[in-house]
Amino acid sequence: MDERRLREAIVEIGRRLYERGYIVASDGNLSVRLPESGRILTTPTGVCKGFLTPDMLVVVDAEGRKLEGILPPSSELAMHLEIYRQRPDIHAVVHAHPPCGTGFAAAGMSLDKPLVSEVVLTLGCIPLAGYGTPSTEELVAAIAPYVPHYNALLLANHGAVTYGPDLETAYFRMETLEHFARITLVAKLLGREQPLPAEAVQKLFQIRERAGMTVPSQALCGLPDRAPSSDETLTLTRQQLIELIAETVEAVIRFLRLAR
Ligand SMILES: [Zn+2]
């Protein structure tokens, strides 16, 4: 895609983020790598990304120095540059504050339970990166350990960032993150989350791997590398066995009390 069409794509995705309520006022930012130049095209700071025009966008180099544009570049540019630096496969970054996903991030909760098959297929799982003051190196340090291993992150007490091989994929990952946050919230309100069993998750990860999707890996999603077989021998110490029985008896007593 040439620069003119990339500029139009950023304007269009900014409009969608605003219309869906993933950003308000001057929140959020977007960027893409410009083909074969090492330069980055990004949104300016301090304007509403729902009403951008192609000429408002800013071109910076890989260190964030402004090369073209009237307005100053995004205040979260350092976070975008860190993602491009660590992931040569990534060509677009979307940062927003979608209300439900950000609610989980404000509650200190990640979205890493395998509750919905389609989400396991598309994103695997979504961790929560620690808090870092927006627009500072703290935020870069908070996301840095997660960047090589995931394609969507919650940012503690702040929002979310997603990235992909092109702008549309990065945006759809933000949509999936927010949709999954809503579904997780409903499951929590219903009082019962029922994660997919390990065998089902393993099959989904096999489909992902066949499609060439290796980030994140099954092990990183807090799931076993392989489903335990039913005839597997487990070794417990006497103390672990006593604790297991005591926990089971306690759970049964609690259940009986509730059922009365
Ligand atoms: Zn933000």
Task: Describe the protein.
With 260 residues, the chain is α+β, with helices and mostly antiparallel strands. The protein has a single domain (3-189), classed as Class II aldolase/adducin N-terminal domain (L-fuculose-1-phosphate Aldolase, 3-Layer(aba) Sandwich), CATH 3.40.225. It is built from eight helices and eight strands, in the order H-E-E-E-E-H-E-H-H-E-H-E-E-H-H-H. The protein has an eight-stranded mixed β-sheet with strand order 4-3-2-1-5-8-7-6, sandwiched between helices. Helix 3 crosses helix 6. The longest helix has 23 residues, at 167-189. The chain starts with a helix and ends with a helix. Residues 225-230 have low confidence and may be disordered. Bound molecules: zinc ion.
Give the helices and strands, then pairings.
Elements: H1 3-19, E1 29-33, E2 40-42, E3 58-60, E4 66-68, H2 77-86, E5 92-96, H3 99-106, H4 117-122, E6 128-129, H5 137-143, E7 152-155, E8 159-164, H6 167-189, H7 198-210, H8 238-259
Parallel strand pairs: 6-7
Antiparallel strand pairs: 1-2, 1-5, 2-3, 3-4, 5-8, 7-8
Helix pairs in contact: 3-6
Bound molecules: zinc ion.
Zinc ion is lined by residues 95, 97, 134, 158-159.
How many H/I helices?
8
CATH topology-level fold name = L-fuculose-1-phosphate Aldolase
What is the quaternary state of this protein?
single chain
What's the CATH architecture? 3-Layer(aba) Sandwich
SSE run: HEEEEHEHHEHEEHHH
Structural class designation:
alpha+beta
What average pLDDT do the residues reach?
A: 91
